[in-house]
Amino acid sequence: MRFISKKGKVYWKNPEKQKLWAAKRKARTVKIRDIQKSVARECSLLGDCSKENINEITRLYLKQLKVDGFIVNHKTTEGKNATRVNFYIENGTFSNINKCG
C-alpha cells in the first residue's frame, strides 16, 4: 500500500511492493521518440507530411496509448513535434521510408 504526503512524496509500507510497482510502471512507459518514428513512417506511407497531419496522427496515437493503459511522458509542443517528425522523414531514419514530396 502506498501513501502520498501533502508535498506529493510517495511512501510505501512494503518496499517489495514498491519495487514491483516501479517495474510495472517502467514496462508500461512509451517514449515519445518511438511515437514520433511511428508517425514519420505513417506520414511517409500516406505521402502527406503537413504539420496538421502530423499533429493529428500524434494526438490519435497518444489517445489510443492512454486507452490501452500505457504511460506517455509528452511535454513537447505541437510545433516541436512536427519538426522532429519531419527530421526523421528527411533523414531517412528508417530503411523503408520514402521522403515526402
Please describe the biggest sheet, giving its number of strands, its sense, and whether it closes into a barrel. 2 strands, antiparallel
The class by helix and strand makeup works out as: mainly alpha
Termini separation: 55 Å
Strand order within the widest sheet?
1-2
Mean pLDDT: 76
| Low-pLDDT windows of residues | none
Q: How many domains, as an integer?
A: 2
What is the count of DSSP helices, taking H or I runs of 4+ residues?
4
Strand content is 5-15%
What's the assembly state of these chains?
single chain
Number of strands: 4
Give the fraction of residues assigned to helices.
55-70%
- Determine Rg (CA atoms, Å): 18 Å
Principal-axes geometry comes out as elongated
**Element string (H = helix, E = strand):** EEHEHHEH
Outline:
The chain is mostly helical and 101 residues long. The chain is 57% helix and 10% strand. It has four helices and four strands, in the order E-E-H-E-H-H-E-H.
